[in-house]
Write a structure and sequence with these properties.
This protein has about 400 residues and is of the alpha+beta class. It is built from 8 helices and 5 strands. It has a 5-stranded mixed sheet, covered by helices on one side.
C-alpha cells in the first residue's frame, strides 16, 4: 500500500528541491568563475614564460655566434705553429670548449622553456574550453533552472492555497455548526419561549372569558404584544439567514437597513454613499455577495477596529460594481495577519480570506490596505454580470 504524502510533506519536498536547484546554479557559477580566474593566471604565467623563451633564444643565438668564432680561432691557432705556441692553442681550445658547454646548456634550457610554454598553452586552451562550457551552462541551464524554480514556486504557492482552502473548509464546517447552534439557541430562547407563553396566555384567556372580561381583555393585549415581539425576533433570525429585502427591495435598501441597525447596536458612525447603481443591471448573486462582504467588513470593524467612523462608497463603472469600506480604527499589520494560521481576522486572516474567496468566485477582486494606527480600507471590484447569457 502506497503511503499518502501530506500537503506539509509535499511543501517541504518542493522547498528542498528549490534549494537544491539554487545550490546547483550557484555551483555552476562558481565553477565558471574559478575556470575564468585560472585562465587569467595562466595567461600571466604564459606572458612571463614567453619573455624567458625570448631571452633564451637570443642567448642561444649569441652563444652560437661566439662558439662559431671560437672554433674558427682554434682552427687558425692550430694551423699556425710559427705564430702561436702551445699555450695559445690550449687557451683557444679551452675557450671553444667552454662556449660549447654553455651553448649546450642554454639550448637545453631553451627546449625546457619551450616545452613549458607548450604545456601552458594547452592548459590555457583547456581552461578556455571549461570557461566556455561553464558560461554555456550558466546561460542555458540557469535559465532552465529559473523556469523550474518558478514552476516549483507556483506549486508551493498552490500548496499554500490548498492549505488555506483546506483550513477554510474546516472553518466553514465549524462555522456552519456554530451557526446552527446559535440559531437553535436563538429559536429556543426567543420564538419557542414566546410561543410557549402564547399558549399559556391563550389558555388563561379562555378561563377568564367566562369570569372576568376586563382581565381577559388585558391578557389579550399582552398576548398581542408577545406575538409582535415574537414576530420581530423571527424576522431578525430570517434576516440573519438571508435578508428577504434583497429579493423584494434590492441591495441598496437592504444595506441602508443593515447600516441603520449597525449604528444603533454599535454607536459607530457609518456613512453609506451609493451612486450610479442600477440594481436591475446587477445579478442577484452579486448583490448577495456584496451584501455579505459589507456585512463581514462591518462585523470585523465592530470586533477589532475600535473605529468611531466608517465610510462606505459604492458605484458601478465599466461593468464593475466598485465598493470601498474605510474606517478610522487602529488598523493592523497585514503581513503579520496573513502569515498566521488562526481563523480570526487579526489572528489568521480568514475573515479577509473569506471575503476574498467570495469575490474571486464571482471573478472579482478584493484587496485590503491597513497600517497599525491608521485604519483599514477594504476595496472590492466585482463584475455586475457573472452569469453567461444564452445566445
Amino acid at each position: 500500500m502506497v503511503e499518502e504524502i501530506s500537503i506539509e510533506q509535499l511543501d517541504e519536498i518542493v522547498k528542498k528541491t528549490i534549494e537544491a536547484l539554487e545550490n546547483g546554479k550557484k555551483q555552476i557559477f562558481e565553477i565558471a568563475e574559478s575556470a575564468r580566474q585560472e585562465w587569467k593566471d595562466l595567461e600571466v604565467k604564459l606572458a612571463e614564460l614567453q619573455s624567458k623563451v625570448k631571452e633564451a633564444i637570443e642567448e642561444v643565438e649569441r652563444l652560437s655566434l661566439l662558439e662559431k668564432e671560437s672554433r674558427y680561432r682554434l682552427m687558425v691557432v692550430s694551423k699556425n705553429f710559427k705564430l702561436y705556441g702551445e699555450d695559445d692553442i690550449k687557451k683557444a681550445y679551452d675557450i671553444a670548449r667552454e662556449l660549447q658547454i654553455k651553448l649546450a646548456l642554454k639550448r637545453e634550457n631553451e627546449q625546457y622553456l619551450i616545452a613549458q610554454r607548450t604545456e601552458l598553452e594547452m592548459r590555457i586552451r583547456r581552461a578556455r574550453e571549461i570557461v566556455e562550457r561553464a558560461e554555456y551552462l550558466v546561460t542555458h541551464v540557469a535559465v532552465a533552472m529559473n523556469y523550474l524554480v518558478d514552476a516549483l514556486t507556483n506549486i508551493s504557492s498552490t500548496i499554500h492555497e490548498l492549505q488555506k482552502k483546506e483550513m477554510m473548509g474546516i472553518r466553514i464546517i465549524t462555522a456552519q455548526e456554530q451557526e446552527r447552534q446559535r440559531l437553535a439557541r436563538d429559536i429556543h430562547d426567543g420564538p419557542a419561549q414566546s410561543l410557549s407563553n402564547i399558549v399559556l396566555k391563550c389558555e388563561l384567556c379562555e378561563k377568564l372569558l367566562d369570569r372576568d372580561i376586563e382581565k381577559a381583555r388585558k391578557q389579550i393585549g399582552e398576548l398581542k404584544q408577545l406575538v409582535k415581539s415574537s414576530l420581530q425576533e423571527i424576522r431578525r433570525i430570517i434576516f440573519d439567514l438571508r435578508p428577504m429585502s434583497l429579493d423584494d427591495l434590492g441591495l441598496v435598501p437592504t444595506l441602508q437597513r443593515y447600516v441603520s441597525t449597525f449604528i444603533e447596536d454599535t454607536g459607530i458612525d457609518v456613512a453609506l454613499e451609493v451612486y450610479d447603481l442600477d440594481e436591475n443591471a446587477v445579478d442577484k448573486v452579486v448583490e448577495v455577495a456584496v451584501f455579505r462582504i459589507v456585512q463581514e467588513a462591518l462585523s470585523n470593524i465592530k470586533k477589532h477596529s475600535k473605529a468611531t467612523k466608517v465610510h462606505i462608497k459604492m458605484y458601478v463603472k465599466d461593468g464593475f460594481l466598485i465598493a470601498r469600506i474605510a474606517d478610522n480604527g487602529i488598523g493592523f499589520d497585514k503581513e503579520k495577519v496573513e502569515g498566521q494560521k488562526r481563523a480570526d481576522i487579526h489572528e489568521g486572516g480568514f475573515g479577509i480570506y473569506g471575503m476574498k474567496q467570495r469575490a474571486e468566485l464571482l471573478k472579482g477582486k478584493l484587496t485590503v490596505q491597513s497600517q497599525e494606527g491608521k485604519g483599514t480600507t477594504v476595496s472590492l471590484q466585482i463584475p455586475i454580470n457573472t452569469i453567461e447569457k444564452e445566445g
